[in-house]
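User: I'm putting together a small comparison set for a docking exercise, and I want a reference complex before I start. The sequence is below, and the ligand is zinc ion. Could you produce the 3D structure with the ligand included, as structure tokens?
Assistant: Of course. I'll restate your input first, then give the structure tokens for the complex.
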Amino acid sequence: MQRRTALKLTLAAAVLLAVGKPYDLWAAPQNVSSGSLRVWSVAAGGYVMTDKVTKTADDWRRQLTPEQYHVTREKGTERAYTGKDWNNHADGVYRCVCCGQDLFDSRTKFESGTGWPSYTEPVAAENIATAEDRGFFMTRTEVLCSRCDAHLGHVFPDGPKPTGLRYCMNSAAMVFIPRGEIDK
Ligand SMILES: [Zn+2]
């Protein structure tokens, strides 16, 4: 009886080892160089590898205007209808004001009536990050740049088709690049 139990335990251990192996291999970052980030590039028309951008508060302050700094690095919100892009109907791409990463395409921009530039989706899921925001007595989903962690705005589940999402962004967090100048 004891021998049989021992055999069962040995078999169970063997199964666990065999099952565990693929996961161990899968988890090993063998083909991924550390710090690399896979994001969509509109200019390249495909995914590219890039690195995270990390700067000190002083560096960001030197690079940005006070409003850009407040929105992107202090999670601020510009007043509705005051930004440069809520009523921008030009064809092009909106990039991160901090690191230049492509964020939104004008083809997904829509009239939300909110006074903030609004989109149904980012250029690619990889180009943004989201986080739970429990400020102002409500829970919202914060949207950040995946490359430099700039605060961009929030996403709400009340947008139009095809995604049903409303990415409510701050003009101050983005730079608009006309379609013809994307490659330059
Ligand atoms: Zn960025």
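The domain at 53-181 is CATH 2.170.150.20 (Metal Binding Protein, Guanine Nucleotide Exchange Factor; Chain A). The first strand starts at residue 36 and ends at 41.
User: Thanks, that's exactly what I needed.
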